[in-house]
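User: Run a structure prediction on this.
Assistant: Running it now.
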Amino acid sequence: MITCEKICKSYFNGDEETQVLKNITFKIDKGEFVAITGPSGSGKSTLMHIIGALDIPTSGKYLLDNKDVSELVDDELAEIRERKIGFVFQAFNLLPRATVLRNVILPLVYSEVPVHEREGMAKKALLASGLPEDRWNHLSNQLSGGQMQRVAIARALVNNPSIILADEPTGNLDSKTGEIVLQTFRRLNEEEGHTIVLITHEPSIAAAANRTIFLKDGIITEDKRHRR
C-alpha cells in the first residue's frame, strides 16, 4: 500500500542545503498498524508530510496504492489527500459550534457523495470510532478531550480512506484518555482492518502499534515488529 524508495528531502536557504531525510526506504502493507517515532529533529514530521501528500520528496519515490505520489502536482496531491488519506491531528481541529454529526459530515460536502447519503456515512464512521450515540448531537465544544479525538477519528474515517495518518493523536490528552484513544486505533486496525500510520515521539505510544520504524538524524535506525 505504501512504498518509500530512497526518499530524500532537503530544504534550501540560498546555497545552503539542509538534508532532513536520507535514503528512506520501507513498505507498509494493507492492514498494518505502524508507528513512526524518533526524537525531535529526527525527520518524522517531514516524513509524515510526504506520506500524507502534504509535501513531495527532493528525490526518491513514494507510491500509494501503486501510484507515484512523488511526481504529482498540487491539484493531484489535494485529490490524493481527499480520497486516500484520513488525518487525525494532535489539535482536534473541530468546528466548536457545530454538532458532532455536522463535524463528521463536513469532509463529504466537498466530495461527490450524494447529499442523501452523507448522514448515514457519518453515523457509520461515528459508530466505528466508539463515540456513544447520545453525544452525536452535542456541540463539539461540549465534549471531553477524548470524545473530541474520537470525533476527529470518525471524520478521518468518513471517506473510507486507504490509510489513517495520526500525528501525535494523544498529545493533548492525559495518559488514561490517551490509552482509550489508542485502544480505538487498535480496534479499528484489528476488527475493521484499517491501515494506520501513527507518528509519535513517545516510545510508550509507539508500542501500541504492531511495528515501529525508528528515525534518527533523517535515517531509519531500526524497523521492528512487535509480538502480540
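The chain has a mean pLDDT of 92.
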